[in-house]
Design a protein that fits this description.
- The protein has one domain.
- It has one helix and eight strands; from the N terminus they run H-E-E-E-E-E-E-E-E.
- Helix content is 15%, strand content 47%.
- With 136 residues, the protein is mainly β.
- The strands form two sheets. The protein has a five-stranded antiparallel β-sheet, with no helix packed on it.
- The protein has one helix spanning 2-21, and strands spanning 34-44, 48-49, 55-62, 69-78, 81-90, 103-109, 115-122, 128-135.
- This is Lipoprotein.
């Protein structure tokens, strides 16, 4: 009976030490990526289209560093004028590739009405780059 209780105590002691000594990896959570707007350098694509026809425009932008990746296109206001901007996601780690190369994304445009439309992307903090599209 003594050997059984001694074995039980040793097993409980061993399990307690094993559970207490496990490291907790949640103490250092990984930082989340940072999203910033990027400036557009060019917009290329068709200048005419038809009602309810989807047009694809190539939007060229430059990120702050080579580790930045396209995230999304969002709306922005400059001097009470509404336009679009490219948002870039940067990893939280230090980027060793500092020289960025121009990157491209595709912006899809579709109109249910005829007319001339100006597609504006943020070129700088104070102005837009404009691409006109005539829908017939």
């Amino acid at each position: 009976m003594k050997s059984f209780s001694l074995k039980s105590i040793l097993v409980v002691l061993f399990l307690s030490i094993a559970l207490i000594s496990c490291s907790n990896d949640d103490d250092n959570p990984t930082p989340s990526p940072v999203t910033k707007s990027a400036l557009v350098t060019a917009i290329t694509g068709p200048a005419t289209g038809k009602v309810n026809e989807e047009l694809s425009l190539d939007v060229t932008f430059v990120a702050d560093n080579a580790c930045g990746q396209f995230d999304r296109i969002s709306e922005v206001m400059i001097n009470k004028v509404k336009g679009l901007q490219v948002e870039v996601k940067y990893p939280s780690e230090v980027c060793t590739q500092q020289v960025p190369e121009p990157k491209k994304t595709i912006y899809k445009f579709k109109s249910a009405e005829k007319g001339t439309f100006e597609i504006k992307f943020k070129k700088s903090e104070t102005e837009f780059l404009i691409h006109k599209v005539v829908i017939e």
